[in-house]
Amino acid sequence: MSYTIETIARVHSPYKQKFGVARQPGLVPAAEVCIELQPEFHANSVHGLEAFGYIWVSFIFHGVLGEGWSPLVRPPRLGGKRKMGVFATRSPHRPNHLGLSLLKLEHIKTDKTVKLYCSGADLLDGTPVVDIKPYIPFVEAKPDAISGFVTGKPQELNIVWQTEAMQTKLSTKQRDVIAQSIAQDPRPAYQNIPERVYVMNILDYEVKFQIQEQTATIIGISLHQA
């Protein structure tokens, strides 16, 4: 039996490309997104949701739809060298390319369209959303659960801005999104090339940086040219 899943919303995100997107929700608290519901979903569809602190967002990994999937993948947590079954990971390369994120619900606006503003996001700009549910802690929080090969929060990189001028052109919120995102080390897990310059398109900027040992140095920032 086959099913059709309709897009109920689209995501407006600071992450404009796959490279640099937080690998899990909550790792970059400053990453705020707006989930804009399709016009047919009016204010009634979110009545009562404002009373919840977090929401589950089901979405499509649209950025990798053309890349297919594999029964074995290489999780970054294992250095990108050891393979695990796709259903033992959160890889976007899945049979149905479905994703699930737990996001902090900041506020809701219901004017021309319904917009949910969330933080701690790991969603690419334009992501199709297929469902939204409230998070219920007493049912869903299992702090003592065994977590397999995932052991604690990954170590973050130290962030250095090469010049103060790069920081002064940005707002505090913009600096936080950029710094917190790079601190998660967006490189492929197997890659360690200190001289390489990485480029991340985030917010409205093209950000260039290098990574040596546990320090990322931001060496350039300019408005992104579409």
TrEMBL record:
Listed GO biological process terms: methylation
Gene3D superfamilies attached to this UniProt entry: YaeB-like (3.30.2310.10)
Gene Ontology terms for molecular function: methyltransferase activity
UniProt keyword annotation of Methyltransferase present: yes
Domain TsaA-like: start-end pairs: 5-144
Record key words, sorted: Methyltransferase, S-adenosyl-L-methionine, Transferase
InterPro entries: TrmO-like_N, TrmO_C, UPF0066_cons_site, YaeB-like, YaeB-like_sf, YaeB_N_sf
One Pfam entry name: TrmO_N
Highest taxon listed in the record's lineage: Bacteria
Annotated family: Belongs to the tRNA methyltransferase O family.
Protein name as annotated: tRNA (N6-threonylcarbamoyladenosine(37)-N6)-methyltransferase TrmO
